[in-house]
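debug: dumping io for the single-chain case to check the tokenizer round-trip. Nothing else runs in this session.
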Amino acid sequence: MMRMLNLLCVAALIVPVTPLLAAQRAKPGNRGQTVNSSEQQRECRLEVDGKIKVAGRCWVYPTGAGDYTLNTRDHGKPHYPHFAMVSSNGDGTADVTWNADPTDDRAFDCLGKARKQGECWVNKRVRVCAR
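debug: decoded output
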């Protein structure tokens, strides 16, 4: 099981999307809106191992069908030091990664497969919500 989880995490490293890349794709425009209408400021929550890492308004950038980066860069740096990526697998699960080291600008740290519960992706280690 751990070997499969490690392989999934390695696969997530192949195409990393950083908050900087997301910000380059969607520059903030007038009135707090973005030029790219798909990026939105939403109510965010990231809990890892029972500790709240992100709670409150943050930029959420969709990266595909059901995929997104939570807490993307806004005006040069993210509002919170941590961010997460959710990559749906098309089978009701998603792989979740994050930057465990708040100085990292890539989500290389695997949090495993999560299942959708309401507006959140959840497993034993993580809860990621973008409302």
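debug: round-trip ok. Residues 12-36 have pLDDT under 50 and may be disordered.
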